[in-house]
Amino acid sequence: MTNHWNDIANSDCVLVMGSNPAKNHPIGFKWVLKAMERGATLICVDPLITRTARKAHVYAPLRSGTDIAFLGGMIKHVIENKLYFEEYVREYTNASFLVSPDFKTPGDNNGVFSGLQGTQTEQGFVDGKYDKTTWSYQKDEKGVPKKDPTLQDPNCVFQLLKRHFSRYDLEMVSRITGTPKEKLLAVYQAYAKTGVPDKAGTVLYAMGWTQHTVGVQNIRAMSILQLLLGNMGMAGGGINAMRGESNVQGSTDHGLLFHIYPGYLKAVKASLPGFKDYLTANTPVFADPMSANWWQNYPKYAASFLREMYGPDVPLDQAYQYLPKIDDGVDYSWMTIFDQLYQGKLTGFFAWGQNPACSGPNANKTREGLKKLDWLVNVNIFDNETASFWQGPGMNPKEIKTEVFMLPCAASYEKEGSLSNSGRWMQWRYKASNPPGSALPDADIINALYAKVKKLYAKEKGPKADPIVNLSWNYGPKDDKGNVKHVDPHMVAKSINGYFLQDKVINGRLYSKGTLVPMFASLQDDGSTSSGNWLYCGSYTGSGNMSARRAKEDPSGLGLYPGWAWAWPVNRRIIYNRASVDKNGNPWAPAKAVITWRNGAWVGDVPDGPWPPLAAGAASRYPFIMQADGVGHIFGPGLNDGPFPEHYEPTESPLDKNPLSPQQVNPAVKRWDRVEATATMNACAISDTRFPIVCSTYRVTEHWQTGVMTRWQPWLVEMEPAMFVEMGEDLAALKQIKNGDVVTVKSIRGEVDAVAVVTARVQAFTINGKTVHQIGIPYHYGWVTSAERRYNVNDKKPELFTFGDSANLVTPNIGDANTMIPESKCFMVDVVRKG
Amino acid sequence: MDEMAILIDVSKCTACRSCQVACKNWNQLKAEKTTNRGSHENPPDLSSSTWNRIRFHEAIKDGRIDLLFINERCRHCAEPPCVAAAEDVPGAIIKDPAGPVVITEKAKQLNAQDIRDACPFDIPRFDETGQIFKCTMCADRVLNGLKPACVQACSTGALSFGPKPAMLALAEKSMKALGESATLYPSEDYNVLWVLPEAPETYNLAKAPDMKGTHYAGRTRKSTGLLASLMDVFRSA
Q1: Is B156's CB within 8 Å of A26's CB?
Q2: In this predicted model, what pLDDT tens digit does every residue of A402-453 receive, in sequence order?
């Protein structure tokens, strides 16, 4: 989140789209209720009438996978009715920037942007890749982008935006989304009210926006709206993703994904031979000195990270050489891994705190793939469909050679450490009880593994030995062999924060060797500091463990709670907050002032850059400091599939043709269904009359993710014991399905049984003149806790059995063009009554 | 101790069912084997091990979907018919002036079905030993200065707990926000109160019986300092 949970209560208008917080973030939802008590409008846009919709002042239905059409219509509405916050747009965004005259938008270019190379088919381009040369600014002789502050030049971003979204009229949007025009208008009008300077609207989204082949562009569409309406940096504004796990924010911050290192540093590419090459490639340069271009500090963070990994005695370039390299242009994300698995290219696999046999798309592919491993290690709290894949439905253990290890680990309350919530608040947790039996915290399991691997490498040597053996690994007290005896979370947290590795004088002040670095502004590029994650620098300092603080004072009255835990970066609670003031430092919304310039200083939240307001001239900086050009990006040239969002149909769609353009599906998406060798396993239902119903996946309050933890908890199973499918009364009548019947949901890839929940909350759509039915299924179930499975003598049985297997048996392995997150929210199925 | 009450503002409930689980957790009640009968409502009824459950009300009204989630549990009547029905076994069912209506070990001596039948809201349930069960208003917590477990767990503030006059005032405020058709259910003569957006019949809720002219009217209950110790006996049984 750019803002945070409590801040939602400050909002004038809460838009819930691509999510259902009343059901899936019930505690977080109370902040929405508080906002409503203070007079905020709640808008909910969802294919189904959800519990959030029920509370909303304005509800609009939309077909899964058409959010860009919906939001595109809102962008058009805001522009044409001049509801945008003009000064904000002109001064704080790239709306005035001039773009290359060779840049073409889809309306003028057969549904794609300029620069696409790909294979032409009847349904448009596939296997496409963009040459982004034309997606660039016109620059002056100094290299600074040319601008038209009147926003009139036909090549300025604003006019290009207007032109691009002029195609998203109410008629077209309604055809695509199935939303009645009056409901579109009701949403647009209500939300656009936040375009005035002293009103702020917020958006709460989750997987309903991200799990699409256009997921990132969904969020881009909303980001454009928030910039047009002047809602970024404001109390009650922002772009607010509601994360789905208590520490998934922490996991992405600390670089769990293949393409990033902790602090969102870039993973090392094989084509960058030396540390200097890596820094040059990743350190942005921008010619306008008014842009803080904060990532220009990249070398400090990268050098400090290397120091944390390898200590002060390994030269920086050597430490860089130790890091694993990714090949240019190769994707190493989930679906690629499981494709490799399916093709038998992996020897071993750690399924660590996860259940891929249920959690990844196209579960049959994953389950088949697991059979091909020599060994599998599952680190988890309970048995699950991955650890026990070999005795799942259709499996013959005698034919499976995989050696499977189950390592029991501690649950979150059985160990000490921090969690980072959606609002970037790092909150320390104490240990409440001991883990049972031989279960250990994950860190201690990793530590034990490391000690063994290190010993083997020290003995056997080899090209990968030094990078392993030379890790500094200062994560706990060491024995005389140099191995960490047990992991101390405080030492880990301090390593993340970082230390001065030698005496250093900064701004006349001496920091002696061994001191904790107080903030990332003090990190150095010369190897004199270490920091495991620059974003968290300042979280554990000489003043103590900031994340363990629990001060309840809130001087601003906005719910900032500066003394409660610690937020990154530098305890700033609302980021880009310098956009919440005018050029004199006066807040646009004085009643909800995030920061104010008063008597030569900022008061309120930690300002997003200490510089004086823009009226101070050269001493100031533009507000969007993490963008190289210092402004919010209405035009976003860095993505794989376009600088503006464009509606494309989901890969599996009820429509043969995209009503908007000749381009059916996002051209930049990787299409495994087009790889001949594995075409059957990766099949997609393209215009396949066997699968006429749109299906989405979602969640219930009572179960979590694939149910690995919750399906063993009888009080939860009691409430939601079975895999179900929600469908409308008309579809049920058509299929002769009664409420409570067991049915089979089938896609081209697989099938899963479910209990039919027939409800008026699910209604059919009219899409491009055609009736389209939509249904929804939860993905919490798996065969391990069912009554029908085979139980061996030592297999644990749950106190209460569940019914049904994973929703992912039917989902497609096709993902977003930028993130590869699977398109679990809209794919095509059929539903038939069983027996 | 003041007379206390639980207020349930149905308009704020999102059916997270934390209250349903909190009750199970605090009272260590066994989970029931259930099936999905085409509804998210489970278990399908109160029982000896389910003392609070959420009912899912879904209806189309004026072309709009009305979704409402209602706690189903003991109303803790000011004049409990179950107490009157149990009068032959003193101390079997006790109304404490603080509010809770509590069933003790002695209730095994009663005819459980008679007790269930006496309740206008059909709340009490019994097991094979003949022991009778229902929501205790967490008397063990309340009499020790804590909130009932359900109220503690509620994520939206739909459940409130406090001195009865304060809860009535809160109810008044909520009803005003909901509009003219909002009602207080069953009436002021209970220690668990619901604010409903509409009349109880809309939600298939049993109406409060008219107590006037019955032999329940006018009875008062004396404070039983014995209650807490009887609760202990009951809980350790």
Answers
A1: yes
A2: 999 999 999 999 999 999 999 999 999 999 999 999 999 999 999 999 999 9
What pLDDT is recorded for position B224? 37
First to last CA, chain A: 47
Q: Is the dihedral of CA A327, A333, A338, A339 positive or negative?
A: negative
Q: For residue A662, which of A115, A110, A113 has the smallest C-alpha distance?
A: A110
Identity of the residue in A719, A757, A761 whose CB atom sits nearest the CB atom of B17: A719
What is the pLDDT of chain A when averaged over all its residues?
A: 97
Neighbour tally for A454: CB within 10 Å: 19
User: B23, B65, B176: best mutation site toward chain A, by most A Cβ within 10 Å?
Assistant: B65
HSE, side-chain direction, 13 A CA sphere, residue A117: 5
Phi, psi at residue A184, to the nearest 5°? -60, -50
A758 touches chain B (CB under 8 A): yes
CA separation for the pair A583, A594 (Å, rounded): 15
* CB-neighbour burial class of residue A596 (10 A; exposed 0-12, middle 13-18, buried 19+): middle
For the packed helices A181-192 and A170-177, what is the interaxial angle rounded to 10 degrees?
A: 110
Interface of A with B in 48-67 (CB under 8 A): 49, 51, 54-55
Q: State the pTM of this model.
A: 0.95
- Chain A's closest residue to B65, CA to CA, is A761
Largest CA distance in chain B: 54
Best mutation target, B10, B11, B12, B16, to test chain A (most A CBs within 10 A): B16
Q: What is the pLDDT of residues A328-367, one digit of tens each?
A: 989 999 999 999 999 999 999 999 999 999 999 999 999 9
Tell me which chain A residue has its CA closest to the CA of residue B29. A715
A497 within 8 A of A278, measured Cβ to Cβ? no
**Helices assigned H by DSSP within A258-315:** 275-282, 298-310
Q: How far apart are CA A769 and CA A765, in angstroms?
A: 9
Q: Give the whole-angstrom CA distance, residue A575 versus residue A573.
A: 6
DSSP state, B108?
G
Q: Say if A476 is an interface residue toward chain B (CB within 8 Å).
A: no
Gyration radius (Cα) of chain A, Å: 27
Nearest residue to A172 (alpha-carbon basis) of A79, A49, A68: A68
Contact A760 B12 (CB under 8 A): no
In this structure, which amino acid lies at residue A311?
Answer: G
Per-residue pLDDT at B217: 41
Q: At what angle do helices A157-165 and A67-80 cross, to 10 degrees?
A: 120
Confidence at residue B212, expressed as pLDDT on a 0 to 100 scale: 58
SS (H, E, C) A483-517: CECCCCHHHHHHHHHCEECCCEEECCEEECCCCEC
pLDDT tens per residue, range B102-147: 999 999 999 999 999 999 999 999 999 999 999 999 999 999 999 9
Bridge partners of residue B70, in order along the sequence: B55
CA–CA gap between residue B100 and residue B3 (Å, rounded): 9
pLDDT band at A304 (very low <50, low <70, confident <90, very high): very high
The whole-angstrom separation of Cα A558 and Cα A555 is: 8
Copy the structure tokens of residue A712.
């063993």
Provide CB contacts within 8 A for B4, sequence distance 6+.
B98, B99, B137, B142, B161, B162, B163, B164, B167, B191
- Residue pointed to by tokens 């393409």: A259
Report the residue from A51, A701, A803 with minimal CB separation from B67: A51
Q: Taking the CA atoms of chain B, what radius of gyration do you get in angstroms? A: 17
Distance CA A334, CA A331 (A): 9
In the chain, the amino acid numbered A534 is W
Q: Read off the pLDDT band of B60 (50, 70, 90).
A: confident
CA distance A511 to A17: 48
> What are the tokens at B67?
């979704």
Q: Angle formed by the axes of helices A215-228 and A67-80, to 10°?
A: 20
